[in-house]
Amino acid sequence: MLEQGTITIHTQNIFPIIKKSLYSDHEVFFRELVSNGVDAIQKLKMVGYAGETELGDFQPEINITIDKEKRTLSITDNGIGMTGDEVKKYINQVAFSSAEEFIQKYQGGDQPLIGHFGLGFYSAFMVAQQVEIDTLSYKKDAEAVHWTCSGSPEFSLASSERSERGTTVILTLLEGEEEYLDPNRIRQLVKKYCDFMPVPIKLDGEVINRQKAIWRESASNLTAEDYLEFYRYLYPFQEEPLLWVHLQTDYPFLLNGILYFPKLQPDIDVTRSQIKLFCNQVYVSDHCEEIIPRFLLPMRGVIDSPDIPLNVSRSALQMDRTVRRIGDFIAKKVGDRLQELYQNDFAQYTKIWGDLSLFVKYGCLNDEKFKKQVQDIIIYRTTAELSSPGAGDQKFHYTTLQDYLERAKDRHANRVFYATDEVAQATYIALHQNQGLEVLFLDSFIDTHFISYLEREYTDVKFTRVDADLDASLIDANKSAELIDPKTNKTRSELVQELFKQYLDKPKVTIRTESLSGSAPPAMILLPEALRRLRDMTALLQQQKAEFPEEHTLVVNMAHPLVENLVSLSQGGIIVQSSGDSPRQELMKNLCQHIYDLALMAQKGFDPESMKSFLDRASFVLTRLTTPGTI
After folding, report:
1. Which of 44, 399, 490, 546 is 20 to 30 A removed from 127 (C-alpha atoms)?
2. Is-contact 605 547, C-beta < 8 A?
3. Which of 23-27, 189-193, 553-557 is the least confident region?
4. Which helix (H) or strand (E) holds 154?
5. Which of 103-107, 447-451, 573-577 has the largest mean confidence?
């Protein structure tokens, strides 16, 4: 026996705290001990390169041994090893005094206590009733030593018969920790925490970790298949990523990583990070919310940096200067990658824009630097068929806002017509197209906010939804002024307005008559831009569905044959029956309501009662029109 003693700590109950208070994070002991073994191997390489020892044909490795009968789990490295004095210094003094300081500072805080590199050895006592260290230093004539501690401040340090350089940590597991005697559980822990450690990790003589961390390799040495294979490994059973960004810098901080743009799914939580955080190839966490800019949280991949502080609270992490600079660096690199794709492969850029646009637009709303970087490469789907520079005869239906405004300056300078629902607003879109007016699509869920952003950025541009108003080019002003009755001097328009006001009986609906150009429908509903936006914003603040407003405008198309026939029908003789309206009046009433319903269908869905009324009315009108002698 070389020595017995007491570990120099003031907090006598440190071991109960380790065993109980930190229990929820107990599996990370494995990561900490394997990480220490990798560090020991790296240190041996350093002293070898410095000429302090001969490495020869050095084959670094970490071996994991399970003894179910003795209830022991052993982790062995062939690294630098320790002398007796080093064990007393680094284990008895540094490790436990650091543990004590750490627990005093963070106990009751908002983040786990275990898992902060450099303080990891004591985590072994979460799962072990006894911990032993058997070690031999690389130093010439060093004596092997064996350290033992049974979960109290007392320890023993004795000589050892060990003949191979390196260190073995032996854990005699507590009751209830038998899972760490299961080889499958150990393989699971290696894959989760240690898969990319640059040292072979062996179990039963088999290497069970990948070792190769492609994010630390030069991008020029990697193929597209390398990136895709890595993504498939990290996120199995997922669709292929849209594109990726390789991150590498060593100043003013050290950072490596690969980030992927995933194909977005409807159920994705855009507030939670799916990026894996590593520190020197050791897995730390799946949560990077405090490190990654908010608009990039849906991205996937790996970030590896030893400069991200792991032993601080989340609030402190958000305020850390280095962390903020890392976030800015990542955002810039993402912007650079998007610029590169836009310039070099516009066809691919448009192909994946539907998914990319969420990142880009959200970034513009939240990050001024990123906005300046990407604002000229934001594209919009358009009704125009365009040719992309350098793409030959290939046509694209995407444009930048600047190009749209340039094309439209002679027809409607500084005015943008846009649609938010291609299906529901199809009639309005077709009306604009038929008159040569280009329409942009702003139809993703983020565009509700993005339109306001565009109006702030382009203060001299008016943005008008296709169903908000009618451009002068869509109206034939001459037809609506035609006189119909010399006695009353009423125009056809005035007559139609009276008919619809009478038969609809909706005081809050404004009846407007216009002769619309092209193949416009018999009637259209307009929602004033300001009123509609106020309704949408109110619904958003109240977290309710936006109801269709009672106050809206019905534009009756005087140039449509159905409306012309309605006018002719109104000029016929009217026979008032004792039971109420004449058959002609009844038909006219149903026609007016039916025309209104057709216009309404382009704006909103019907509830069951409204749909039944519509179908009954359609059946009545068709039956009456096809019955001889009923009109």
Report:
1. 44
2. no
3. 23-27
4. strand 154-159
5. 447-451
